[in-house]
Every structure is written in C-alpha cells, then in structure tokens.
Amino acid sequence: MHPTLTSTKNPIVQDARRLHTSKERRRSGRILIEGPTLLREAVSAGVELITVFVVTGDHGQLDSVKELDSSVVPVSSHVLSHLGTTSTPRGPIAIARRPEPDPVLGATDCLVLVDIAEPGNAGTMARTAVALGFQVVVVAGSVDVWSPKALRAGAGAQFVSVPHVVASINDLLGIGLFTVALVVKGGGSVDHLDTRDPVAIVVGNEAHGLPSEILSVCHSTLTLEMDGRFESLNAATAGSIVMWERSRRRPG
Q: Whole-model pTM?
C-alpha cells in the first residue's frame, strides 16, 4: 500500500486540493467525491475512480474501498480534513474522472438550468430530475453541477444521468423539445405541460430569473401562482414542482 501522507504540501494532496475549484475541474476533467454514500453511488454508476484517500487506521474506510480497482492512498486525519470541503469531512475522498453524458439529447423531457448560482439548488433539481425521468441540461454560465456541494445536494444523481452542458439555449431549439420557461408573473398554468412532445423546463437565476433573450425563444411561459405574502418560491422548489406536474401528465 502507498505510504501514509501526512503533509498538506505533498504534491498528491495539493493536486487533489485544486479540485475544490471549478477551473481545475473543467481543465482536468476530474471531480472530487466526498464520503462513503457518494462514493458508493459513483461506483454503482461505473464512474472511473483515479485515487481514493482514506484515513490510516480507520478500518471502516479501509474496508469500504478494499474491492475498488483504483489507487488507495492512506492519509492522516489532518490531510483528509484539508482535502474535504465541509467543516467535518468524512472519508473516503476520491478523485474521479468526470463522466460523459449520453450523446442523445431531446428524446425525453429535460430540465434546463440557466444562470443558476447556488450549487445546492442545482444539485437538488438534478436529484429531482433523475427521480422523475428528466435529463439535466446546463447552459454555460450556470454554477458547476460537479462541485462538491452540488454533488452532495444531488445525492449522486449526476452519476446516474450525467448532465449535458450547452453553450446556449439555442442548442436545444430544433430538436423537438417544447420549451417552457418558469417566470414569477404573467405565465400560463401547468396545463401548458400537457403535450405529447418532450418538454424542456427552463429555470433561471434565483434572484433575476430568465433574461429576455431566452424568454423570447421559449415556446411558452409558466407561473406557479402564490397565495399569501410570498411572490415566488425558491428556484429548486419551483423547478421540482413543475417537473412533478409534468411527470403526471407525461404520455404513457
């Protein structure tokens, strides 16, 4: 077995630590997977693991990785804390190759994320999307759905149905998708989801919503009417409700 790493200045540790940044994740095509639950989901989905870090002497962590076909590197608890992105990280922590999405896009309903800023919202919507049979599409400029926080919120959904990243929403036009944009006011009802065509539900930025240039190319808009003093719901909540409504109406 690899000797125990005890210094945060070790090149292997520094390389893994750089995966805290979206820039390095994009550049290298690698991601960081934290904790036993996400690691199990990744292994189950066939994600390629490169390096797995475990705390020396932690038999639970060692037992959980002994069958893995990847490099297992023991580290001190101090180093594991340095590698993690939470205040009390749990091992194992793994470096993995970012999975590639299914090349077929538009054959089924899609969730489209535009300028989403919060990784927790992106991960939550990805989890709901996978549970309800939607593909996930991310328009460039949104938060990184492969960030550790987004992966935790997604509970491994990104491994099950790998998100597509497109340059603009124009990439989704002309492939048979009926695009429905979520807006705070003035949109239609959930009855707009009654169509036999695959639907793309488009969710915009938490604070500013969707820009006019995207609204202008969508086929329809939809508003969830609110009772009481709140004007709108959290983006992840609204997106999840609309996906559920569409799943009820999806042709059999």
A: 0.91
